[in-house]
Design goal:
The protein has about 550 residues and is of the alpha+beta class. It has 13 helices and 21 strands. The strands form four sheets. An eight-stranded mixed sheet has the order 1-2-4-3-5-10-6-7, with helices on both faces.
C-alpha cells in the first residue's frame, strides 16, 4: 500500500538507535546551554507564531532541553542512520568531509538508491545530486535540527525515501561545529565561513568545496537563520515578521537560465508550500550595523557566499533563512517546521524537473565554455537601489507596521565594471595558493611544460588602499588587510616560463576564475594575499600555442 505522507512530512518520528562506539575521536562536546531568555517582544507577538500541528523530534528539540543537538549527538544520529538496513535499498553512507579548526569531524550523509555510492558512479545513474548545508553560522541552529529530520525521512522506510528514485541527496547538518558548540556566528578563528567560499581560508569552507567538486550537485540548499529584533528594533522600533526569507544566487555572470529555473521551478513552489502550511515568506533582506543607515538590502552580490559561489559552479543555489538569531529556543518547532517545509518543496521540485534541469545545466556548461575569448565579462556588479513596502511587527502589540524603505534589490544587478573576456589567465609558478584553491573548486589548471610567450593584458596599478571587505551587513569579520587597488589592463607580449600556470576559460566553471583572478575586486585572490604580486597574473587574450601538462 502506498505510504500516506501528510504535508510536509508526517507523523511522530521513530527513534534513532545510537551506535555503541563513539564516532568522535575527541571527547564528546558538551552542548551550549541556552539561558532562560527574556523575549525581545511581547506576548502579542509570540501569539502570531504558534507551534505547528506536527511536533519534530531530535535530541535538541526534546522538551525541557536547554541546548540544541550537540556535536556528539549529531554524530550519533547520522551514524545510526548509516547503520540502517532495509532489504535491497543501500544504507546511507556516512561521509567524513574534514575536521573543524578544533578537530571536530564535519560529517555528511549520502542518501541514494545507487548500489555504488562513489561520485563517479552516481554520475551515471541519471539521478542528479542535491547538497543540503546547515549551520554555517553556529548561532543559527534550526537548519541543523531540520536537516537531521530530513536525513531520517530520506533514509530507508522514511516518509520521503521515494524521492531517491529520482535524486541523490547529501545532508551536511552542521558545517561549522566549532561555532555551534560556542554559539557564535563565526568559525574558531573568527572567520565568517559563509564569506569564505571563494578564498577557502578555513578548513570548514574547504570541506564544502571538496564535497561540491566531487559530487557536482545540481541543487545546493543553504539553511540559515536571521536576526529577529536586534538592528531592526534599534532602527525602526519594529521586529521581523516573516517565517522564511528566501533568495537564489544573485551575482555577476550567474547564468540567466539558472536564474529563470530558480525563480519558476523553485521559488514559486516554495512560497506556495509555505503558504499552505500557514507560514509567511519574503525575499531575504537585512540591514547594516550602522544605526544611522535605514536602508534595507537583499542578500549580497559578491562572489564569496555559498549561495553565490555555488551558483557560479552552475547549480541552482538557494538560501532559506528562518527567524532565529537572538531569540534562543523560542518558537523552535515552528522554525524547524518552516525549514522542513521549504527544503521538502525544493527536493520535490528537483525530482519533478530532473530532465529539464539537466538540460539547463548541460546548456549552461557548454555556453559558459564557449564564451572564452569573446565579448565582455562583468568583473563587478552591485544591487540596484529602489524602494519597497516592507511589513514589520510592532514589538509590543504584534500588529503589522507598514514601512516604505530604501531597498537595494539583488534581483536586478548594476554592472559596475566590464572587461573584454580573456581566453584564460596566466599565473606565476609562485601562485600555488591560488592554484590549489581553483583546483579545489573543480577548475582545470594547466602547467606550462615548455617556456614560450603569450599575448596578454598585464595589470598596471593606478591606485591602492588597505581596507576591509564589506557586505550588506557591514565589515566582514577578519578581513581588515584587504588590498583595494585600481588597475588599467595593458596589452603586451609576456614571457611564460616552465612551471607557471594557465587557467583556460573554455571550461564550465570559467566564472569562478573571473571572480578569483580579476585583482581589483574585494573578493579577488590578489586583494586577499593569495597572489603575492600583481605581476604574478595576467589576462591571456589569444588561444595559447604552448605545451601544457595537467597541474599536479
Amino acid at each position: 500500500m502506498a505510504k500516506q505522507v501528510p504535508p510536509p512530512l508526517g507523523t511522530t518520528p521513530r527513534a534513532i538507535e545510537a551506535t555503541a562506539t563513539p564516532v568522535l575521536p575527541t571527547p564528546a562536546l558538551v552542548g551550549r546551554n541556552e539561558e532562560p531568555l527574556t523575549p525581545p517582544y511581547g506576548t502579542a507577538v509570540a501569539a502570531r507564531f504558534p507551534d505547528p500541528g506536527i511536533q519534530y523530534s531530535t535530541p535538541g528539540l526534546e522538551k525541557d532541553r536547554r541546548s540544541f543537538t550537540t556535536n556528539a549527538e549529531l554524530a550519533q544520529w547520522l551514524t545510526g542512520l548509516a547503520d540502517m538496513r532495509s532489504g535491497a535499498t543501500p544504507p546511507p553512507q556516512l561521509l567524513h568531509l574534514g575536521l573543524s579548526q578544533r578537530g571536530t569531524p564535519i560529517l555528511g550523509l549520502l542518501l541514494t538508491k545507487a548500489k555504488n555510492p562513489s561520485p563517479a558512479a552516481l554520475e551515471t545513474t541519471g539521478r542528479p545530486t542535491v547538497v543540503m548545508l546547515g549551520q554555517q553560522h553556529g548561532d543559527e541552529p534550526a537548519g541543523a535540527e531540520a536537516l537531521l529530520i530530513m536525513a531520517r525521512e530520506l533514509a530507508p522506510n522514511g516518509l520521503l525515501d521515494s524521492l531517491l528514485d529520482k535524486i541523490n541527496v547529501i545532508v551536511v547538518p552542521r558545517a561549522n561545529p566549532d561555532g555551534a558548540e560556542a554559539g557564535t556566528r563565526n568559525t574558531a578563528n573568527g572567520v565568517d565561513m559563509n564569506r569564505d567560499h571563494l578564498l577557502l581560508q578555513t578548513p570548514e569552507a574547504q570541506a564544502i568545496a571538496r564535497l561540491v567538486r566531487d559530487y557536482r550537485p545540481l541543487l545546493v540548499i543553504d539553511s540559515h537563520e536571521y536576526t529577529v529584533a536586534g538592528r531592526f528594533k534599534e532602527k525602526f522600533n519594529a521586529i521581523q515578521k516573516y517565517d522564511a526569507l528566501l533568495q537564489h544566487a544573485t551575482t555577476a555572470n550567474y547564468p540567466e537560465f539558472l536564474t529563470k529555473a530558480s525563480l519558476e521551478w523553485y521559488h514559486a513552489p516554495m512560497v506556495a508550500a509555505l503558504k499552505e502550511q500557514g507560514l509567511s515568506s519574503e525575499w531575504y533582506y537585512t540591514t547594516s550595523t550602522d544605526r544611522e543607515d535605514k536602508s534595507i538590502s537583499m542578500g549580497g552580490t559578491q562572489p564569496d557566499t555559498g549561495r553565490n559561489v555555488h551558483g557560479l559552479k552552475n547549480t541552482v543555489s538557494l538560501l532559506i533563512e528562518t527567524r532565529g538569531v537572538g531569540i534562543g529556543r523560542l518558537h523552535a518547532q515552528r522554525r524547524v517546521h518552516t525549514q522542513v517545509t521549504a527544503i521538502t518543496s525544493a527536493l520535490r521540485s528537483t525530482a519533478d524537473k530532473v530532465g529539464p534541469l539537466e538540460q539547463v545545466r548541460s546548456f549552461v556548461a557548454r555556453d559558459t565554455a564557449a564564451q572564452a575569448c569573446r565579448d565582455q565579462v562583468v568583473t563587478e556588479a552591485a544591487a540596484t537601489p529602489t524602494q519597497r513596502d516592507l511589513v514589520l511587527l510592532d514589538p509590543t502589540t504584534g500588529e503589522d507596521r507598514n514601512l516604505r524603505v530604501d531597498w537595494n534589490s539583488s534581483l536586478s544587478l548594476r554592472k559596475l565594471q566590464t572587461r573584454a573576456r580573456p581566453c584564460g589567465y596566466w599565473l606565476d609558478a609562485n601562485a600555488t595558493s591560488a592554484v590549489e584553491r581553483l583546483k579545489l573548486m573543480g577548475m582545470q589548471v594547466m602547467k606550462v611544460a615548455e617556456a614560450g610567450s603569450l599575448l596578454a593584458e598585464k595589470y598596471q596599478e593606478t591606485a591602492r588602499e588597505i581596507g576591509e571587505r564589506r557586505d550588506v551587513r557591514g565589515a566582514i569579520a577578519a578581513s581588515g588587510d584587504t588590498i583595494r587597488i585600481k588597475v588599467a589592463p595593458v596589452r603586451a607580449a609576456i614571457d611564460v616560463p616552465t612551471g607557471s600556470y594557465y587557467i583556460p576559460l573554455n571550461q564550465p566553471l570559467a566564472h569562478i576564475a573571473v571572480a578569483a583572478l580579476e585583482p581589483d575586486t574585494q573578493s579577488s585572490y590578489f586583494a586577499n594575499h593569495l597572489i603575492g604580486e600583481l605581476e604574478h597574473t595576467a589576462r591571456v587574450m589569444t588561444t595559447p600555442s604552448l605545451v601544457f601538462e595537467e597541474a599536479d
